[in-house]
Protein 1
Amino acid sequence: MSTVDRDDPILKITKLTKSFGPIKALRGVDFELRRGEIHALAGENGAGKSTLMNIVDGILKPDSGEIRLDGVPINITSPAMAQKLGIGFVHQEIALCPDITVAENIFMGVTNTSRSPLMDYRALERRAGEILHRLGDINPAALVGTLPISQQQLVEIAKALTLDCRVLILDEPTAALTERESRVLFDIMRKLAAQGISIIYISHRMVEIFENCHRVTVLRDGQYITTMNVAETTPGDVVRAMVGRVIDSLYPPKLTAEEQSDEIILDVRGLTERSRFSDVSFSLRRGEILGLAGLIGAGRSEIVKGLCRLEGEVSGEVTLHGRRLRLRHYADSIAAGIVYLSEDRKGDGLFLDMSIASNVSALKLEQVARGGGIIDERAEADQAETLGARLNLKYGHVGQQVSSLSGGNQQKVAIAKMLSVNPKVIFLDEPTRGVDVGAKAEIHRILRDLARTGVGIVVISSELPELIGVCDRVLVVREGRLAGEVTGEAMTEDRIMYLASVGNERRLAS
Amino acid sequence: MKAEETTTMATPQAEKMDRTGSGAAGTIRRLLRMRETGLILIILVLFIAMSFASPYFLTWNNMRAMAMAFAVEGIVVVGMTILLISGGIDLSVGSVTALAMVIAGLLFLNGVDPWIASAMAIAACTAIGAGMGFFVTRVGLHHFIVSLAVMVIARGLCLLGTGGRPIGLYTLPPEFKFIGQGSIGVIPVVIVIFVVVVLVFDFLLRRTTMFRKVFYTGSNEKAAAYSGIRTKKVVFLTTTLCSGLCGVAGIIYMARFGSAQPTFGIGMELNVIAAAVIGGASLSGGTGTILGAILGTILLSVVSSSLALLDVSVYWQDIIRGSILLSAVTIDHYINKRRG
Ligand SMILES: Nc1ncnc2c1ncn2[C@@H]1O[C@H](COP(=O)(O)OP(=O)(O)OP(=O)(O)O)[C@@H](O)[C@H]1O
Ligand SMILES: [Mg+2]
């Protein structure tokens, strides 16, 4: 610990390669991490970011190349070893045990190495509480499985923070967080960096990279493109390096005054579920994209899942194209043309160990079946290929397991699954979570096109700029009720945040 | 153009759900990757080795005996495989099979027509399966526990009904015994039934929307529910089907033995589960094929018969069978790991 040059890299990766069968995920990647820096790693979906980090964490074995930690070549063979070396990793996909408490999850790495064979739950919860307090209010004694995905993400971060790490890897940690929670995370990251901890930060959001990181390294198709000082570059340059071309306007044009229609596609009256939301009424007009905003825990997902009959005992009226619907199960909803894109693609959105084709066809198998319920494999493959092309999905072939796709491309499969039934109304819960800039713009454009053709689109997003950029109208949910509506000029982050948090002192105080 | 595309699609990355590759090269490559191919090769090697080791092995009689041995159990393996794919398991298959025999046998002795008695026994077994399905899906208990309890209860019923002794059914009409003992040409009826069951369920499982839902449910129950699939219904039905097929197997055994054996099928569940797992079914659900499971059954049965012919002690036979299961699962684990 004597005189270490601050510019001396703590982690240096040279010529790293990794293939999965015929897919070359990494082709000779170089990467260098300095002490105390926050280093962003950017690249399109499937560029190889997660693969690179999984190698550093010992989850995957590289085919060739070298990793030096503190200048010493090292062969990291397991996550446990990485942990001992001081490498902490917050994964892109949440990897917690749902049936045990938050506190136990946070200290999982520690409990099995502690000297006493008995667990002191009280102390565990107290210490977990201290760490969680910095991130937001989560009950350390709650079972992880009962928490919404954003809070699970915070638990995942808290878990990494308890480890005494020198290198902290965060793989798209904010994809599931709201602005407010993200900001808390960034504060913590800056403090850690000031203490000399080096952070690798993966994100598709340029704003976050430019506000919080020192340097940024760009990967494209498994290749190292460049490393830049954030202060000396622009988001446009980074995006250009990522995609190899210029991406112009981020959001598609909104509805113009003359395009607006009075025709109501979906009308919801007095939707109520005992403890979670009550008296939710709204209508969705032809052509518009409707947004649902609110703080985490406000009940946005619950309302929508309740409406689709995915969970809960819900009362209230739902009218689609003037016809009153009698929904008992989600299957009725799908049959009526109302579908829900889950916010948790790994937990309940996708069949990870099944093929792309059978994921896409799952909502309505009859569509790819001949009479008598016999699946036509060619039709099933065609369906996946057509939708894959429409969403610009990057994959080998449609028989490939979904788990072998990059996070963003998995999300596209989940969206393809929704589109496969030609729905009348789609509720999209965090539709662009973990999707890269280019693909995100594409998804937004697709949503707009769908809306134009008369499909009702409702978007839930924790990313306010996305809601404001995409939606024609935003409803704000607060504590299970609609707190207000914003349109046109009034659609600003401040206005939405105000509506979302007024009367919620606990949140305001934090 | 289209043909070209399909061949390039069949890269070595393809998985068991990949049935999109056409083209000869693609087909061959796909075949080589399938675990079924591996099992067939192992079985062939065993055949060749055994035909040198024992002159009796490759005789018609021995082949026939072996086929008879795995054919009826194979019907149970079909039910178990489907249940495993849906994420369940059934330890009661052996006792339920025996119970079918006992119920049908007792009814017959009390003057019921053997066909009607058989239908009633199969219905009773199906009802037992439905009962287990109820406890699993409505009460929320685990398959393992529910079927463990039923395994003991059903065995108890068998012993209670018969006083623990086999009941001879000497007056069974010949046309009934025909299902268990007769032949069509040179092919035993038992094997014909078995082949029909296997082909039908293999087709259903691979190609129908109804059974695809079994895969979805086993792969990720929550995602299946979020795809509008009534997962509880699926699990209920696979549980019921497995017991129903045990009933069918029990009746065939009765016709074959000409008696009802209350202690028949003890330890059968292990054999059946092992066969399905060797054939590629996963205990965590979502994967498995009928063809694979049947090859697993054949492999285990060829091994047993070989060991018996070589005069290896029964105790060793168990040890060897267990080791085969362990090796199959281990190899599979590593193959999956390499695939990533
Ligand atoms: N287990 C695997 N088997 C096969 N291919 C894989 C596997 N894991 C990753 N890949 C492939 O490697 C490439 C890089 O994937 P990776 O997950 O590193 O991308 P990423 O940059 O993290 O993307 P995203 O932003 O979408 O998370 C992709 O083409 C992906 O399909
Ligand atoms: Mg990734």
Protein 2
Amino acid sequence: MSQRFFIPRDTTAVAVGANEVANTLAAVLSEQVSEATIVRNGSRGAFWLEPLMEIETQGERVGFGPLFPEDVADIVALSPADRTEHPKYLGKLEEHPWFAGQQRLTFARSGLDDPLCLDAYLSRHGFDGLEHALHLPPEDIVDEVTRSGLRGRGGAAFPAGIKWNTVLQAAGDEKYIACNADEGDSGTFADRLLMESDPYMLIEGMTIAGLAVGAQQGYIYLRSEYPHAWEVMHTAIAKAEAAGYLGEGICDSDRQFHLELRLGAGSYICGEETAMLESLEGRRGVVRAKPPLPAIEGLFGKPTVVNNVLTLAAIPTIMAGGAEAYAALGQGRSLGTITLQLAGNIKNGGLVEVPYGATLRAVLDQFGGGTRSGRPIRAIQVGGPLGAYLPEPLWDTPLDYEAFAAAGGMLGHGGVVVFDDTVDMAQQARFAMAFCAEESCGKCTPCRVGSVRGTEVMDRIIARESLDENMALLDDLCETMELGSLCAMGGLTPNPVRSALQYFPEDFA
Amino acid sequence: MDTERLLAQLLCQYENTPGGLLPLLHAVQEDLGYVPPESIPAIAEVMNLSAAEVHGVISFYHDLKTSPVGRHTLQVCAAESCQAAGGRALEHAAQEQLGIGFGETTDDGSVTLEKVYCLGNCACSPSVRIDNETYARLDATGLTALIANIGQGEGAS
Ligand SMILES: Cc1cc2nc3c(=O)[nH]c(=O)nc-3n(C[C@H](O)[C@H](O)[C@H](O)COP(=O)(O)O)c2cc1C
Ligand code: SF4
Ligand code: FES
């Protein structure tokens, strides 16, 4: 009876012990007579179940987790019929409620196979979207993306089709695709998971973007905090090139697209698209004034599509399945699926992909499992460090860009950071200012100086010094930053600060 | 290979790379552990920049260093998701156990301690990174064991 064992090699799985589980498994299997292979797959994103081990026997694949190395020998020894009795038995993961309740498009393949195995990618509809796009004129590809309603997943939620059309219409034949893989927001890991678990999908999406706008060169700007994603992407690019999916003559056509992976150097602001372009050009990551838009004058002064990893990774699905199928999901102007990343003090942390429109509370109830500490949830920061801290009454906001904006929040890149009732919101407000002071690119005074002053004022508020005066000062500083900042770093840092003040005033009294 | 030859080789490699300064600086740091200030004039010349511009780039990025750091780097995640799950306690524990502050290196030159803002392990916060390995769902006891291990790895090598 031949068996396959799957143990994820994704960063978080490894960070919680997957390599130790895999080593133990290898040792246990080496003493067995029956045939068995170990596959180091990507992760399915149910990080609360990692380290996870799946066993495939005669086409049926069941999971166990979260495991300690000492669990492995017992599980391997079980006959398939006895497995269900094991306390760590999870059954078929597709049928596990945590997955069955999701609708995975972008992350459909995540965690199923060895991420670098091209045959596995091809066997699960890999490169279908590219094959289709190769037979279309550029205008039709752009039109398909526009009709899908796809909006940028990096934070600003700008319609991807409109951006692509601008680049397509721009004069000149030197154009670029720049993938923003800087994923700096705390509470987010979807870009990382995608690159580590399904790297060819990003390559496919970028190649289609290149065909659509007439770009022959792409760059992925990857943050240095993700060494494993670097390795996987690097190898995937080389393998895709060798197999004719990148480079000259893609899929035996006369089209070409070249892709280069570039490493960031520990700077949050380099996730802002123009700072990213500066960094790609080898300069300090200082934000550029807009206009000109990057779509007109971007990388090396040429028309450039800048898109987030998830935006580009949604493209193959849209091209293969059609714009209508994609746009049928979601609500209002938020179409398709949102990838929420449940993080912070959460029991069942991980990646949840669902159509837009459900409320935050519904998603947390269905998937979150409450806090890991077991204490009540007090505040939720959605959308990264520039997002508001939401109190309980606002958890009924639907996951929809416009609805969140109307509630004073933002969905951003989909990070959901849960805090229990031990959180000190004054400390969180202070951190927002301190983070801005640390990461500001320094171009505008309100951001550069205001955040330093803001940190000092918060220190005085925390020490309860001249409260009224310092609260008024904080309000002034927030207003100056909101009005006088060139980009959202300075402009939105007041979001977490003001929401903390507004909804949790007792922590400032 | 001596420093000069290594540098010459890297300069050749990145000379014609569009926007190649950052990849070049990464490569220099990867091989030498930092970007030696005496290498900056040569880097500037090959990349068609002034030495001040190269300095400006190096000083902008947290990752890039112009002096040697410890043989290992311990980064403790100080961002919100980790804060929500006990990260602030880890920040304190790391400083206490190593007897140094953030941005400092232990006297024996073995460990440099840094803050980092998110390692992408937020579903299993709090998280730290030691060189190229990350660890998550950590508490102070777990951190103590990791720090003790940094020393052990050295004894073996
Ligand atoms: C301070 C700041 C940080 C940002 N960080 C990121 C990031 O890490 N990743 C990202 O994709 N977009 C980030 N953005 C948004 C980008 O500027 C840009 O809108 C995005 O990359 C465009 O791609 P999209 O339309 O596919 O979202 C950031 C913006 C700001 C103001
Ligand atoms: S708001 Fe801050 S980060 Fe943005 S451009 Fe101004 S100084 Fe730079
Ligand atoms: S915030 Fe610490 S790993 Fe993301």
